[in-house]
Amino acid sequence: MEDSLKLVITSDNHLNRYYDRLPPARLAERRRWLRQGFQAAVEFALDRGAHLFLQAGDLFDTPDPRNAEREYVAREVARLRAHGVAVVGIGGNHDTPKQRTEHGGILPQSVYARLGGLHLLTDGSLPTLTLELAGQHVCIGALPWIPTRLAGEDPLAEVDWRPAGSINLFVFHHSIEGHIYPGANEAIVQRASLDRLAAAQLVVAGHVHEHAYWTTGRQTVVIPGATERLTFGERHTPGFVYVELTPGGVERLEHISVPCQPRRDLALHTWTLQAEGDDLCAAALRHIEAAAAPDLLLRVRLSGPIRREDYRALDLRRLWECGMERAFACEIDTSGLVIEDALGLRMAGGVRVSQREALETSARALMDETDDPAERALLAEALAAVLACYEQGTPA
User: Fold this and answer.
1) Alpha-carbon distance 324 to 317, whole Å?
2) In the predicted model, what is the mean pLDDT of residues 61-75?
3) pTM tops 0.90
4) Are the C-beta atoms of residues 40 and 128 closer than 8 Å to each other?
5) Which helix (H) or strand (E) holds 356?
6) Do residues 381 and 375 make contact, with C-beta atoms less than 8 angstroms apart?
C-alpha cells in the first residue's frame, strides 16, 4: 500500500493586521485572535504527524510586520522543524512588497528561509522544490505573487510546468474564476488554465478567504481560506485544510474550523428608532447597549431618511464611545442615511451635512486603501491638523 503524504495547508493568516481606531491594549488582543488560527494549524500538524506544512501566502498583513509577530512565527516554524515537518511557503499580495525599491523587494518570510526553517518559493518564474517525504518523491511548484500583474490578466496563461515527482503539488496566491471577491479588479486564474497543471495531483490557491475545493480526475483544487474573519462582509467559517495525498490523488481532505472573534452587524433604521418615542440618539444608544458584549466586534449601520435638524442632534461620537465602552470595538456607519430638506424632499443617499464629516470620510477611505501603518498614522495626523484648523476657522 502506498504511503500517504500528510499535509496541513493554511493561508491568509494576516498576522500583524493594523486597526487604526483600536487602543493599544485592544489592538494587541485583536492580534492574539489572529494568531489563534495559525497556532491551531501548527498544533494540528504536530498532532497528526504531518510531513508537510504549506502556507499559501499572506502570512503577514504587511511586508514589514512587528518584531513580536516575526518572533512568534519563528518560534512556531522551529517547533515544526524540530518534529521533522517540512515547512513551505509563498508570498501573498499583502506580505509581498509592492515594488522592488520597497524593502529591496524582500518578503518578511525570507529571514526564516535564510536560517533554514522555511522553504520559500519566490525566486524565478516557476520555482520548484523537490523533497523526499513519506517515501515519495514530492515536487512542489509555485507561481510567485507579482504586484505588476494587470486586471483581466490570467497568471497561468503562459505556464508550462512539467514536474517529475511521484506526488506533485502546485501553489499560487490568486483568485480563480468562480471564486473571487465581489467587484475584484485584479488578475484572475481561469478555470480552463488549471489544465496546464495536469501533472499536479493537488493545486492550492491562497487569496480568497472562503474555503472551497473540487476534484477533476485525479486533480484536486483547494482554496484553504482564511483563519479569521477580517471584515464584516465575510461570512465564511475560518480554518485550515488537512490532506492525505498519494500518487493517485487526494485520499482524504478535511477543513478544520477554528474559532473567530465574534462580530455583529447591527442595522438600525430611522423609522424604527423614531417609533420608539424619543430622540434618535437615545433610541440608538439603547440598541447598542443591548447588543454589545466584551469580545464583540460591533458595526452599527444607520440607515433611512432623517431630517437635517435630527441629524445635527445625532451625537455620533457618543454612539461610538458607548460601543467602545461595552464592546471590544465599534464602528458607526452613516452611509445609509438620507437627508431630507425642510419640504421633506430627500437628497441623494449618503449625502453629508457638514464639511467636517466629508473630511473625515475622505481620510478614512485613504486609510483603508493602505496596508502601511506608518502611512495610516501620517494620514491620521494630517486629518487631525486639518480638523483643528477647520474648527478654529483658520487656513490649513
Assistant:
1) 10
2) 96
3) no
4) no
5) helix 355-369
6) no
